[in-house]
Every structure is written in structure tokens, then in C-alpha cells.
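Moderator note: this is an archived Q&A kept for reference. The question asked for a predicted structure of one protein chain; the sequence and the answer are reproduced below.
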Amino acid sequence: METKERIIEGAEELFSMYGIKSVTMDSLANQLGISKRTIYEIFADKDDLLIAVLTRMAKKQKEMVKRVLDESENSIVAIFKMLEINRDYFQDISPVFQADLKKYHNDVLMKKADKTDMPDYRNNQQVIENGIKEELFRKDINPDLVNRCLYNLGRSIIDHTQYPYEMFSRRDVFRNIFLNYLRGISTPKGLDLINRLEKTI
């Protein structure tokens, strides 16, 4: 693995565990067994490195969406699979990471959104469009708006600040919020499938 990729991978691991603010270039260099100078030869500053980490995360998410779409028999099954994968993925990421990103690096996030496919809800719009073609979702919905809404609802399920773990289980949040929205955009054929899949959650 090239040094640049090692640094990005190491930074993603540390940011995910401890948040962005608490991870210094010194601590990253020590973790990787390289000099801080080596990091700065590749990345101008911490924000530059953060953009590289976010790019890597977006790329992995795109690959996951493509894999799930290829392996799923229809769009609703794909949505359920993606939710399960994202739930497991975000369980390994400290809530501090998201909080730091919004509080201290929001300008980086906005810059990233302008340059690439972040925010990553854009990666999932094909799922909604496919669902309309499969007659699982209603034809009168706007795929872009619906996709953005589903993305944000999905993220809210794992956001402990909106729905504290001690008050609501992730399963209850999913059933009461995300699933009801999904039902609202579905055809009778889609509703039947959702009702069957719900039993597996």
C-alpha cells in the first residue's frame, strides 16, 4: 500500500474512533510509524487530509450501493440491505466524529460537497428510480426529493442526539419513522413486500 493510502486509511480509523479534533498529526504519525513531515509532504493540513478521508468514505459507499443493487432482486430489498449495512458501519464510528465534522469542519464538508459526490445521498437515487420502474414505488413521486428524505431519515435512525438510545431502540425508530415514510411512497405491490420484510427486522 502506498504511503498516501496508508495515511488516509489510518486517519479514517482514528477519526472514526476518537473524533476529528482529538486526533493530531503527531498522534497519526505515531500510529502509522512515520514522521509528521511525511504526512505534510502529502497533505497541506488537517482539512486537506479530512477531505481525502471523506472522499474515501464516499467511494466505499458508492461501491456498497452498486454491490447491493447488483445482488438484490428489487429496490425495496436493496433499501433494507443498505440500512442494515449502514447500521453496522455507523456502530463502529464514534458520534464524536459526526459532531466534530459539523462543529469544526462544516466548511470542509461544504467544499467537499461542491467538488465531489458528497453528500452521499446522491449515490442512492438510482434505487428510487428503479423502484418506480419495478412498480414498487408510486409514479407521482420525485426521485431526487424522496431519495434525500430517505437518506436523512436513515441517518436520523443512528443519530443518538435526536433519538437517545436510552429512550428509543433503533428498531422502534426505524419502524415508526423510516418504515412509515417508505410505506407512504409505495404501491400496493411495494407495501406487500415491505410488510413481509418488516418481520425479518
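Archived answer notes: Confidence is low (pLDDT under 50) at residues 114-119.
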